[in-house]
């Protein structure tokens, strides 16, 4: 099964690197094309994947085609690949706001289309990807696509109606978490901790807290309460975060992200 990537920027490269990190043999199954050939060359040197020098070469040699370009480039690429697409090939979108219906509209044949929304922690095999498919794909074909994303983290099959919510909660949310880690470390630096150590403490505590939610299955509120002893230090910090509206800022950020994705879908 050959997987062809069109676009090897942040997300394309993260998926490729995570997929090869999972199993070195996977490198033989990956072809990539980017309009900046040096980006693909870097991945060839780093991961040993195959470089395609044209979209037509990639289309001739791939079973699954992953479009890893910005949403505004999709129309242009879809017009280019439409006459080259064979009915047994599978088209995968990773873009915010690109609907299955939009993908289908470029093809005369009943194209096999999958809409996904991954995130960049794919690079370290800790991504999460939401997937929806159209009716032209059977269960075993969908399984092949799911397997790619399983190798770079977790996967969830969702109703396409929910897809515009995914950027806000996981596709884009690593950015908000990095902001939180940076702010946490700034706080420690302000109190006199060396910066490198501050990032280490901040990032590890975010990683640990996330694993507590996933592995204990406890409600995040209960886990928060477990850290807050009466009259202690933590509740002082929690009171400040509540006073500054941390929760509502995050909820509004997710709403803004979802709204943008919905607008793009239209
Ligand atoms: N970044 C994320 O965290 C994230 C998360 C989830 C989903 N996504 C989705 O992933 C997609 C890619 O995002 P990204 O952040 O990886 O963008 P990116 O870093 O800009 O990568 C896109 C790559 O495609 C190249 N490209 C542009 N036009 C092309 C063409 N005609 N043929 C071949 N390659 C072309 C770009 O080259 P140039 O630099 O020359 O334009 C760039 O190398 C987007 O649709 C986005 O919605 C991203």
Task: Describe the overall structure.
Helices cover 53% and strands 14% of the residues. With 266 residues, it is of the alpha/beta class. It folds into two domains: 156 residues, Rossmann fold (3-Layer(aba) Sandwich), CATH 3.40.50.720; 95 residues, ProC C-terminal domain-like fold. Strand 2, helix 2 and strand 3 form a beta-alpha-beta unit. The two termini are 33 Å apart. The site of NADP nicotinamide-adenine-dinucleotide phosphate has 26 residues, from helix 1.
Nutshell version of this structure?
With 266 residues, the protein is an alpha/beta fold.
Helix content: 40-55%
CATH superfamily of the largest domain: NAD(P)-binding Rossmann-like Domain
Mean pLDDT: 97
β content, as a range?
5-15%
CATH class of the largest domain: Alpha Beta
N-to-C order of helices and strands: EHEHEHEHEHEEHEHHHHHH
Keywords:
Rossmann fold; eight-stranded mixed β-sheet; binds NADP nicotinamide-adenine-dinucleotide phosphate; alpha/beta
Topology:
Elements: E1 3-6, H1 10-22, E2 30-33, H2 37-47, E3 50-51, H3 55-61, E4 64-67, H4 74-81, E5 90-93, H5 100-104, E6 112-117, E7 127-133, H6 139-150, E8 153-157, H7 166-171, H8 173-190, H9 195-216, H10 220-227, H11 233-243, H12 246-265
Parallel strand pairs: 1-2, 1-4, 2-3, 4-5, 5-6, 7-8
Antiparallel strand pairs: 6-7
Helix pairs in contact: 8-9
The structure holds NADP nicotinamide-adenine-dinucleotide phosphate.
């Amino acid at each position: 099964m050959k997987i062809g990537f069109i676009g090897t920027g942040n997300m394309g490269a993260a998926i490729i690197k995570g997929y090869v990190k999972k199993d070195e043999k996977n490198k033989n199954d990956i072809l990539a094309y980017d309009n900046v050939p040096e980006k693909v060359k870097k991945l060839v040197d780093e991961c040993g994947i195959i470089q395609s020098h044209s979209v037509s070469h990639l289309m001739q040699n791939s079973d699954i085609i992953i479009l890893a370009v910005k949403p505004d480039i999709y129309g242009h690429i879809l017009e280019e690949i439409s006459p080259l697409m064979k009915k047994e090939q599978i088209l995968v979108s990773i873009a915010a706001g690109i609907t299955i219906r939009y993908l289908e509209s470029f093809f005369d044949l009943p194209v096999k289309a999958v809409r996904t929304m991954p995130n960049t922690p794919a690079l370290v095999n800790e991504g999460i990807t939401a997937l929806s498919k159209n009716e032209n794909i059977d269960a075993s074909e969908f399984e092949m696509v799911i397997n790619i994303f399983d190798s770079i983290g977790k996967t969830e099959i969702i109703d396409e109606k929910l897809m515009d919510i995914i950027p806000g909660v996981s596709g884009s949310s690593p950015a908000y978490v990095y902001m939180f880690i940076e702010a946490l470390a700034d706080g420690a630096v302000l109190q006199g901790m060396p910066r490198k150590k501050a990032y280490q403490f901040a990032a590890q505590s975010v990683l640990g807290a996330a694993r507590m939610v996933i592995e204990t299955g406890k409600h995040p509120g209960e886990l928060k309460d477990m850290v807050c002893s009466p009259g202690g230090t933590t509740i002082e910090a929690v009171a400040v975060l509540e006073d500054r509206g941390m929760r509502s800022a995050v909820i509004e950020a997710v709403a803004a992200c979802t709204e943008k994705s919905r607008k793009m879908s239209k």
